[in-house]
Amino acid sequence: VTNDYLWDRSGPIDPEVVRLERLLGRLRPASEGPRVLAFPARVTARRPSRAALVAVASLAAVIVALVGVSWRTTHLSPGLEVTRIEGTPTIASSPVADHRELRAGTWLETNDEARASIDIASVGRVEVEPRTRIGLVTTRPDTTVCSCSAAPFTR
Amino acid sequence: MMRAAAAPLRPEPDSGGVALLVERAQRGDRAALAEIYAVYRRTVRGILLSRVPRVEVDDLVQDVFVTAMERLSSLRDPAAFPAWLAAITRNRATDCSARLETDDAARRDLPVADVDRTEALLVLAAIQSLPEAYSETLTLRLVEGMTGPEIAARTGLTEGSVRVNLHRGMKQLREKLERTLA
Predict the structure, then answer these.
(1) What whole-number distance in Å separates Cα of residue A117 and Cα of residue A97?
(2) Is the pLDDT of residue A33 over 60?
(3) Contact between A34 and B1 using a beta-carbon 8 Å cutoff
(4) Percent of chain B with pLDDT over 90
(5) Does residue B26 sit at the A interface (CB-CB below 8 Å)?
(6) Are A109 and A133 in contact (CB under 8 A)?
(7) pLDDT tens digit sequence for A56-74
(8) Is the CB of residue A81 less than 8 Å from the CB of residue A91?
(9) Which residue does chain B place closest to A57, by CA atoms?
(10) What's the distance, CA B161 to chain centroid?
(11) Any alpha helices (H) in B50-158, and if so which ranges?
């Protein structure tokens, strides 16, 4: 205890510091924010609540999926193979007819009706449910990094 | 008056604990990687927020950790990880700032909610205008809710430096805010 509120919140309260803590604390994400996750076998987007949509829109919160993938093949694909399951999923806002490649820096998005799958080397196939947005950050020999979030709900 | 509530921070490993955690991560232990992310995520976010527009922060947090994980094997002193990660974060923020200076499109894409002049954003802008050493420690203290000792442990700075930065930064911030109100 140092009797110094600014330093370690000990001692007499500094009203201005407390006011700023409360004011600026609102800029912290409402949730714990992105988490490092093992890439799930199946990615499913729940219908987001209105509060969740606000959080998604205002904070651009994304869930980060970090996966270490052992590439046993000698040739590396520059992207991931996406297959349309139903509806009209899009990559970089262009419809996916049947198959298409998801390249680093682009996003796969599904609306209310669309579903798709992504093939990721030794991980297998990831099914992407409606209202989901997945971006391929990068692929490297031993790592695939994707960002995933619930897409804004549209009626 | 009640004290401001701050979200609990993930416990900071002591210096030996940091080294062990990083050594595990260097051997490819994914649980250790996840623990590193959980412990240092707010520090990285705070450092970025003190230097770049808020809308850029989430993506940059990812970039910083991806970069750190890629380079982790090259870190010779695992106990130096906090300072090493903070340096990577500052470099990414510098790169981003340089890009934004020449990329008007990035500014045009800002969501409306992020350009609203709320009081919090005005104060944040005032903090961001302070010298970097002050803005970084004040952001970690006032936005991320960390204490001085926690900031020192997570950035590799000495407690003395953090204390000086906090007090000098707060003094300058008060003056800026008073001028703004006047």
Answers:
(1) 13
(2) no
(3) no
(4) 57
(5) no
(6) yes
(7) 555 544 444 444 444 343 3
(8) no
(9) B111
(10) 16
(11) 54-71, 81-102, 104-108, 112-115, 119-128, 132-138, 148-155
